[in-house]
Specification:
This protein is α+β, with helices and mostly antiparallel strands. The relative contact order is 0.15.
């Protein structure tokens, strides 16, 4: 009987090594990043940006009291949706791409390619949070948080 091997990034590389790779540039950037499997599951994620961490948690709350998997599939987890969409584009096109997320951060996404096959994607926030008060108010409304909380 042939054993099926787990061919996910997390299984092949290991979550700790993925986190170590993220940490190597996250400390420098002071932002947030996610590594996704091709099916959209997280292989690793790290939030060193208070802005991204706050908005990510706030947008996950918009999904209700559900599991992480259910929140991912709901389409209501704003931060996950934004990161996943730019990541999906990078995987489909097999080239880096970027776009501004709903929280006002530019997300840069790079496909992970092995033997000519896209096996996942790595993305990171590569800009500072917005400072324009009108934009901050719009973001606060979208995420259902107060502008004052967001400014902190």
């Amino acid at each position: 009987m042939k054993m099926e091997r787990d061919s996910t990034l997390k299984a092949i590389v290991g979550e700790q090594l993925l986190l170590d790779i993220q940490n190597s540039y996250m400390e420098y950037l002071g932002t947030s990043a996610a590594i996704y499997e091709v099916n959209g599951d997280y292989a690793a994620s790290l939030f060193t940006s208070n802005w991204c961490d706050f908005l990510n948690l706030s947008s996950k709350k918009l999904c209700g009291d559900v599991s992480e998997h259910a929140a991912q599939k709901s389409g209501k987890w704003i931060c996950h949706e934004d990161c996943w969409q730019v990541s999906l584009q990078a995987m489909r096109e097999a080239k880096p791409c970027e776009r501004e997320c709903s929280g006002g951060i530019i997300i840069y996404s790079v496909p992970i390619i092995a033997d000519g096959t896209v096996i996942g994607v790595n993305n990171a926030g590569v800009s500072n949070p917005p400072t324009d008060l009108v934009k901050i108010r719009d973001i606060a409304l979208r995420y259902k948080v107060s502008s004052e909380e967001l400014l902190k």
